[in-house]
């Protein structure tokens, strides 16, 4: 099948999936977002964008389950982003007014925090735990090693891996 024909088939599939399930997905998301219509509408659209970007389509009869998995991940991302934003705004509120960053700086920092959070979430559990314990809880490598039940050498490797992943996130557009 030619690429143009394949794209036309996929567009038709997405259109049919949207027509068949968008209203249901909106209600499903609204229920998980405490009745927030605006967030639910945004996430419906984000779900279909993510579907199109992935290039993967559900098998016949599994549209709702497939969309619910994508949308569920987006709900988690939204809650995570809001928690990060709230913590960041609380930290800003504790600073003296002249030291407060501009709106643009706030947006950049929030974007960076979300990217780092996503990177840490994709790392193996002990790697992200070691990084968080060391960098955000202020624990020494020895204390981290004891808590995780690993050697200090393992903690050093975990820290290197996590730091490299975070640096790559900083370089990403």
From TrEMBL:
Keywords: Sigma factor, Transcription, Transcription regulation. InterPro entries: RNA_pol_sigma-70-like, RNA_pol_sigma-70_dom, RNA_pol_sigma70_r2, RNA_pol_sigma70_r4_t2, RNA_pol_sigma_r2, RNA_pol_sigma_r3/r4-like, WH-like_DNA-bd_sf. GO terms for molecular function: DNA binding; sigma factor activity. SUPFAM superfamilies: Sigma2 domain of RNA polymerase sigma factors, Sigma3 and sigma4 domains of RNA polymerase sigma factors. The keyword Lyase does not apply. GO terms for biological process: DNA-templated transcription initiation. The keyword Transcription regulation applies. Residues 17-83 form the RNA polymerase sigma-70 region domain. Residues 114-166 form the RNA polymerase sigma factor 70 region 4 type domain. Belongs to the sigma-70 factor family. ECF subfamily. This is Sigma-70 family RNA polymerase sigma factor. It comes from Alloalcanivorax marinus.
């Amino acid at each position: 099948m030619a690429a143009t024909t394949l794209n036309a088939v996929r567009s038709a599939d997405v259109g049919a999936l949207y027509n068949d399930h968008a209203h249901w997905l909106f209600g499903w998301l609204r229920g998980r977002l405490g009745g927030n219509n605006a967030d639910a509408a945004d996430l419906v659209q984000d779900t279909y964008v993510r579907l199109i970007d992935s290039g993967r389509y559900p098998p016949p009869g599994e549209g709702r389950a497939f969309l619910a998995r994508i949308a569920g991940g987006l709900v988690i991302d939204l809650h995570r982003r809001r928690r990060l934003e709230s913590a960041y705004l609380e930290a800003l509120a504790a600073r003296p007014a002249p030291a407060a960053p501009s709106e643009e700086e706030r947006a950049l920092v929030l974007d960076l925090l979300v990217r780092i959070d996503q990177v840490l979430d994709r790392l193996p559990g002990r790697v992200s735990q070691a990084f968080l314990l060391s960098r955000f809880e202020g624990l020494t490598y020895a204390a981290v090693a004891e808590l995780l039940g690993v050697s200090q050498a393992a903690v050093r490797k975990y820290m290197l891996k996590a730091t490299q992943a975070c640096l790559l996130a900083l370089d990403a557009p």
